[in-house]
Design a protein that fits this description.
This protein is α/β, with parallel strands linked by helices. The chain contains 23 helices and twelve strands. It has a domain of about 100 residues: immunoglobulin/albumin-binding domain-like (Up-down Bundle), CATH 1.20.1430.
Length: about 575
């Protein structure tokens, strides 16, 4: 295990900003008001609740938690579903369906298709009763899926219970008598027991936003935001932004996204309003969707009151290369570990750049380690950064990653890693956890220990490879953009025609905003898994078709045909990507 070799009498400290990004796209189907995929509520009961638990257990550890507004909206939606008893998520509804023997073949197949979607190594194999259900399903598949008719209601009940048990956060498993009792029982779950589990899920989801808000009010965390439906801001403004980091990138046939600036202002205005309503104040800053930045987007962010933003390390390296004609050496650190002030033509904005290496270690490597060893290595890496940092200024290390998708690959949902990490950080004499807002506020103080640099050039890019290749540039991604541009032009014509009433205009605009999210383009590509690509391809085309329907237009025939087909096996199922090509 790495040992600390930091001198204990130095006045210089390392300022660490941990930013956990919480994001799910909108999984609702607007015409029929149901949920197509269950990932929002599953991550709510597993990850959002565990992440706030660890912060509550370590009150001296600070962090930034970035909530995408469309995610918070869905959390509130689920809360209302539980209150009303009208459950619009099919999987959740079947958990509390009393007579499962009465389910038709389609519903039975939906349970089978859904209830084994998890990391089997960490979330299925450790549980003998759940593994037994999987073995029975595999046996049935071997004799043709039409045998779904012969599944008993008790099998379906046990499968639904186990799926929701393994998606429970570790903090709930260790504190809930209900969960412990059901896991011990293992099978033959009654309707009353299913309803008990269902009620626990509802209470868990309802408490998430209030728990984070309380920590923000105590000053332990900063809650930041993102444009409302998570669009790639630079691409909304100008497809050619992709060529700043990749000069030969192929672009869609459409020259521009129609009315992109107006749409970006809408996403940002709605995000600020949502943040005020949910967390009591406007956000001090925003993590731009996918870390996507350009000089034009920073100007718009500043116009909406953002004092800071952040993106990937490669964006800074590309920008310094253009500015100084000198690419930072791989072993150098001084350029990365400080904030930069970027002039926007209006109010300047501070820009932070993530340490890609450390962020990727948490996202992709530490899941393979023992929790205490991983935490010790992370702290050791920070100590080395501090020991090698030039000058008298405190180095500012920014670690930003998914706050939800990494943990299912860790033992026990990263319980031991996160517990050890926060414990080591809050008691370390030379490391100070802080937030973006605290750091920016300190820059204006007389005793500031950090000196920002000015960044004259800013090369547009994202936190993945420093480019936009994850979302644009391939034939299927570009075709998706062209279909969206066509729909947006139809939207503009209908909105100007006066044919829709106020409520119809509102629904069409909400559906358009969903179509503008980054996730659809993220999943297009043969390097992703076939199942994931199929799910998001179908939902994107359904969203566009629904938009045409809400505009009272016939949807193009092309939306009936698959755009993208996956055949890959990416790390972490494709939900996260490393910052660098490996």
């Amino acid at each position: 295990m790495p040992q600390s070799n930091m001198p204990q009498n130095t006045d210089k400290k390392l300022q660490l900003i941990l930013c956990w990004h919480m994001h799910q796209p909108d999984y609702r189907e607007y015409l029929h008001h149901g949920y197509v995929l269950p990932w929002t509520y599953l991550h709510a009961m597993k990850d959002y609740t565990d992440m706030v638990y660890h912060l509550e257990q370590h009150p001296k550890a600070k962090a930034v938690v970035n909530f995408v507004p469309i995610l918070v909206e869905q959390l509130h939606d689920y809360e209302q579903q539980f209150k009303s008893g009208h459950i619009r998520d099919a999987l959740l509804r079947m958990l509390c369906h009393e007579h499962l023997d009465e389910l038709g073949d389609e519903a039975r197949q939906h349970i089978l298709d859904s209830c084994f979607k998890s990391n089997h190594t960490k979330m299925l194999k450790p549980y003998r009763a759940y593994q037994h259900l999987f073995d029975l399903q595999a046996l049935m598949d071997g004799h043709g899926r039409e045998n779904v008719t012969y599944l008993s209601g008790q099998y379906l009940a046990d499968l639904l219970v186990w799926y929701h048990l393994v998606w429970m956060g570790e903090s709930i498993r260790r504190s809930s008598e209900t969960v412990a009792r059901l896991m011990t029982k293992g099978s033959q779950f009654t309707f009353a027991e299913r309803k008990e589990l269902f009620d626990l899920i509802g209470t868990t989801i309802a408490n998430i936003v209030p728990r984070y808000r309380k920590l923000a009010e105590l000053g332990q965390i900063e809650i930041s935001s993102t444009p409302y439906n998570h669009p790639i801001m630079p691409l909304l403004l100008d497809f050619a932004a992709a060529r700043e980091s990749e000069p030969n990138a192929l672009l869609p046939q459409s020259a521009q996204y129609p009315g992109g600036l107006s749409r970006l202002h809408s996403h940002l205005s709605n995000a600020v309003a949502s943040h005020k309503q949910n967390f009591g104040a406007a956000p001090h800053g925003m993590w731009p969707s996918e870390g996507g930045v350009s000089r034009a987007t920073l100007k718009v962010l500043a116009e909406h009151g953002c004092e800071w933003t952040a993106t990937g390390q490669a964006v800074l390296a590309n920008s310094l290369l253009r500015e100084m004609n000198d690419y930072p050496l791989p072993g150098s650190s001084g350029y990365l570990y400080k904030p930069y002030l970027v002039e926007t033509g209006g109010k300047p904005i501070y820009c932070f750049f993530r340490d890609d290496h450390l962020s990727d270690k948490v996202g992709f490597e530490y899941a393979k380690w023992k929790g205490d060893d991983a935490a010790a290595d992370f702290v050791h890496q920070l100590e080395e950064i501090l020991r090698n940092s030039p000058g008298a200024d405190d180095p500012v290390v920014t670690v930003i990653l998914d706050g939800e998708n990494a943990w299912e690959y860790y033992p026990y949902n990263a319980y031991y890693f996160l517990s050890e990490l926060y414990a080591k950080l809050e008691n370390h004499p030379d490391i100070r956890t802080t937030t973006f807002h605290e750091c920016v506020r300190g820059l204006d103080g007389q005793d500031a220990c950090v000196t920002p640099s000015k960044l004259q050039q800013l090369v547009a890019g994202s936190w993945v490879y420093g480019t936009f290749s994850t979302w644009i540039g391939s034939p299927d991604k570009n075709r998706g953009w062209d279909l969206l541009c066509d729909a947006k032009r139809s939207y503009d014509i209908v909105m100007a025609s006066g044919r829709l009433n106020e409520e119809e205009m509102r629904l069409a605009t909400e559906q358009l905003a969903d179509c503008e999210g980054s996730d659809w383009f993220w999943w297009f590509g043969d390097y992703n898994s076939a199942l994931s690509v199929a799910s998001f391809d179908s939902l994107f085309r359904r969203n566009l078709s629904n938009l045409y329907h809400l505009l009272k237009l016939r949807a193009p025939e092309e939306l009936q045909h698959v755009l993208s087909v996956g055949s890959g096996a990416p790390a972490m199922g494709g939900t996260m990507r490393r910052s660098e090509v490996v």
